[in-house]
Amino acid sequence: MASLARKNLFHDRVRFAVTLTGIVFSVVLATVQLGLFLGFTAATADVIDHSGADLWIVSTGATHLEGVTAFGEQQAFRAMATPGVARVEKRVVQFGQWKRPDGAQEGVLLVGFEPAGELGRPWNVVAGDVRALEQADTVFVDELYADKLGVTHLGQTAEIGGYRARVVGFTRGIRTFTTAPPVFTSFKNAQNYFGLREDQVLALLVSVTPGADVAAVQRALAALRDVDVHTTAEWSRRQQTYWMFGTGAGITVLIAAALGIIVGVVVVAQTIYAATVDHIREFGTLKAMGATNGFIYGVILQQALTSGALGYAAGMAIALAVATASQQGTTAILVPPWLALALFALTLGMCALASIVSINKVTRLDPAMVFKG
Amino acid sequence: MTPLLAVEQVTKTYDMGGAPVHALRGVDLALHAGEVLLLLGPSGSGKTTLLSIMGCILQATSGKVIVGGRDVARAAERDLPAVRLRHFGFVFQGFNLFPALTAAENVEVALGLKGVRGRAARTAALEALAAVDLADKASALPANLSGGQKQRVAIARALAGDPSIILADEPTAALDSTSGQLVMDLLRSLASRHERAVVIVTHDSRTIRYADRIVAIEDGRLASTTEAVA
Fold first, then answer.
1. Closest Cα of chain A to B93: distance in Å?
2. Does B105 contact chain A (CB < 8 Å)?
3. Which end of chain A is more exposed for a tag (fewer CB within 10 A), N or C?
4. CA geometry: angle at B185 spanning B183 and B188, to 5°?
5. Are residues A213 and A284 part of one domain?
């Protein structure tokens, strides 16, 4: 059976190449689309997931980080007085307007944090010292967006909201879901750029004392009025849900991912079906010779799974190369191991399913067809 | 002498868009070991339908199909492959060889279905090919064989596992006269020397001299039976 299936498959090389091409195309399409979805999803909550905080305090009813409203900094002192709280740091995240050195304007996502603190700091710093952000009107930008922001070197100046912004450092690979590049600055600078009062904050980042129960501290902080307290994981999920399911852009990415899977599945199914039907006369001959349906199913299934496995291997290799190349750009394609495994299972599953559909055709096959010259 | 195969009052009716089409109308026929039986008749007369029913490939609408002393006309469809495997070897007009397999591998597939595998299958396949004078073509793919050679490989495949009945559908139709003669000699010797029963459906008048009995079919009925002159 193994020999017949294998030889059937490899004998007609053009047919086999067509089959493999269909599967490779499907695997690349589905992987890239799902990888884009995961990349975008991760990008929406990157500054939350990398914050190092255990809890976030934001205005009541806030659905996403960029949509929080300001509240008084006295909440920070109240939070500090709560048992189990080790550290509370102030945070500003807002969209702003960046004026490039050549005068052109770009929207940016300004992230204000406390440079002397431990929470919400930029990561992947490749140039400059975060402490330099304690100086007035200083910012870090990401290398991925340097061209877009018109930044070519450290020390260069631009403007944010009409105030000077001097680039004192670079990060690498911090992305946002929107087209607005992330720009890190100190909390104090951010207050200036946005015209916030000195006693106003947009979010508080909380870390708990070692060994403290985060959920218990969250419950204790819930006593604060006019704010919501989320764990970092909860807030990250809320942020991702808002951007991916609550905005047109997110839905577009989601639909593209779903279409990628559907088109991939259909192409795989059609490819395997056509490849099986091509051999229908041979299966009829086997049936006439006395082969059981089980034997014929085995041959068909083995052909389908071999095609699926080889097509998957080639397709995933291409998709991983594309995903690796995407790390140099502003749109990352993420292919975590679970996605690669899930797509392997999906590919084999689809090949098996498509072959079962064609098996049905073989089951209904009139063995007398072999007598029709 | 008990026949290897007998059909009694066999009918076959197809439903063609609600209208019944009677392909066979009460056919009786018995086949004995060592006999070559030719089924003749015009297109649409029911020859191939009868051959398919005799080979348990198609089920009769009514009547009996007795193979090896057992009536299989009403047998469950899932039981028929085993009957075909045990009793029949098939030779097709279009050869129906597996194009991806060599001549020897084509024979081995048939042996594999009967549970003969590995070295034993290879030895038996080579013997079968030698019996049709194709030992030197064991490694050749069907695409590299002539029509006559392909049909001889098909006969070698039909012989795999030593079935008692060979059913051949137009075995010479796609062959030139020399190749056709070679194939018919082979089928004749299977009956004469090896006591197999051979049924041949044909339009080819050149094959008549190889037959022990010639049965003509018209409109689904046996029109005449002619015994060959010894």
1. 6
2. yes
3. C
4. 110
5. no
DSSP conformation class of B97 = -
Q: Which of A197, A238, A249, A246 is nearest to A65 (CA)?
A: A238
Q: Is B31 left (phi over 0), alpha (psi -120 to 50) or beta?
A: beta
**Boundary of a domain, candidates A225, A260, A278:** A225
Task: Find, in chain B, the residue whose alpha carbon is nearest to that of A282.
Answer: B98
CB of A157 within 8 A of CB of A101?
yes
A192 and A97, same structural domain? yes
Tell me the per-residue pLDDT of A41-65, one tens digit each, with 9 for 90 and over.
888 888 899 988 999 999 988 888 8
Write out A29-90 in H/E/C secondary structure.
HHHHHHHHHHHHHHHHCHHHHCCCCCEEEEECCCCCHHHCCCEECHHHHHHHCCCCEEEEEE
The number of folded domains in chain A is 2
Give me the residues paired with residue A202 across strands: none
On the question of pLDDT at B157 being above 70, the answer is: yes
State the pTM of this model: 0.75
Task: Tell me whether residue A48 is in a domain.
Answer: no
What is the biggest distance separating any 2 CA atoms in chain B, rounded to whole angstroms?
A: 53
Is residue A111's pLDDT more than 60? yes
Q: Could you tell me if A96 and A213 lie in one domain?
A: yes
Characterize A254-264 residue by residue with b for buried, 16 or more Cβ atoms within 10 angstroms of its Cβ, and e for exposed: beebeebbeeb
pLDDT of residue B110: 92
Residues 137-176 of B with CB under 8 A from A: 157, 169-170, 173-174
Q: Give me the amino acid identity at A132.
A: A
Give the mutation candidate from B24, B39, B43, B52 for the A interface (greatest A CB count, under 10 A): B52
CB contact under 8 A, A370 and B92: yes
Which chain B residues are closer than 8 Å to A368 by Cβ? 48-49, 52, 57-58
Cβ-in-10-Å burial (0-12, 13-18, 19+) of B81 comes to buried
Q: B51 at the A interface (CB within 8 A)?
A: yes
CB B198 within 8 A of CB B190: yes
Contacts of A28 (CB under 8 A, 6+ apart): A315, A318, A319, A322
- Regarding whether A302 and A214 lie in a shared domain, the answer is no
Burial of A225 (0-12, 13-18, 19+ CB in 10 A): exposed
- CA of B89: which chain A residue's CA is closest? A289
For every residue of A238-301, DSSP letters joined together read HHHHHHHHSSHHHHHHHHHHHHHHHHHHHHHHHHHHHHHHHTHHHHHHHHHHT--HHHHHHHHH
> For tokens 């139709």, what's the residue?
B173
Domain range for residue A156?
61-225
Predicted ipTM of the assembly? 0.87
Are residues A287 and A339 both part of a single domain? Answer: yes
Cβ distance B90 to A288 less than 8 Å, yes or no, reads: yes
For residue A226, give both structure tokens: 């006019």
